[in-house]
Amino acid sequence: MKRKTVVGGAVAVLCAALASSGPRTMSTEAQLASSKLSSPPAGSQTTSPDGIFPGPGGRYLYGSDTNGPTPSYSSSEGYYYETGGPSSIYGFYAGEMGVFQQKDGCPNAVNYYSLGDANAASYDSTRIMAIGASEYYFMAGPGISNSAGGDYAWGQAQARWVLGHLVGPNDNNIIWIDIEHDGSVSYTNGWNANGNSCGRRGPGTPLYGPAQDRSTFNGFYNTIAAANYTVGVYSDASVWQTDFGTGSYSSIPNTLEWTYQSDFATNPAPTLGSWCGSGGCADFFGGQSAGGSHAVAWQWSQDAGDFDITYWGSPQ
Q: What's this model's pTM, rounded to 2 decimal places?
């Protein structure tokens, strides 16, 4: 998704949601959510366009996030398809339900969410073993100035805002945390530089590191998990290591992961049937690797739109 720094539309009012008083320790992490998706009625299944028959054991599917592409419906097959690239069933959508600048009413702060794409993914999730639609939040790290109440408390405050502003649908009860760096000279997401509440970069050397980053992450994670959602993380290996290091603060072995390599392929065809293609393989983070049961999604092409491949079902 590699979000550009644009900060949000109407000023959102912070809703009272869940109050969390969890211990300020490393997250215990929720386990992988069980699939709630139903199989098509007997006799209605057809071979999918990528040649993979929908059935038990999991499967690779295609999808998109905030930056498209918009799926199309085939009345003859009864499926939504990925468009603009791989000819495959559309089985995944994650839309941005919010961004940290909205929490404090920053001018021009907007989120990006396509209800049409979410409904298309939700439709397919009732017919094939697909992850369906979910939501993600563009999170700020402890370098943002309104974390003054404490790193853990800053994570909690963002989580409470999210719980009060979910837009849905959310087929598998997953809320993704988007952790990435802002490449502009004027703005920061607070993971690797100081900034004010709207993300504008401030002076001075950041007085925090992996411990503080993890504390903010834990505050968010524990609050969302206490509300009975499964937490996932969208990031990449280099960003994750820069923020959380390589020790215990970086370890998330039981958290769902959605990784990105936006320059993997400028041409999103042909379809991939694994975590690898001609340009390389998906690079997961936090102690996880492709093939693990929590390696769920990979954004592997951005130039023609945000193309994602997912694996959903039984562990690989």
A: 0.81
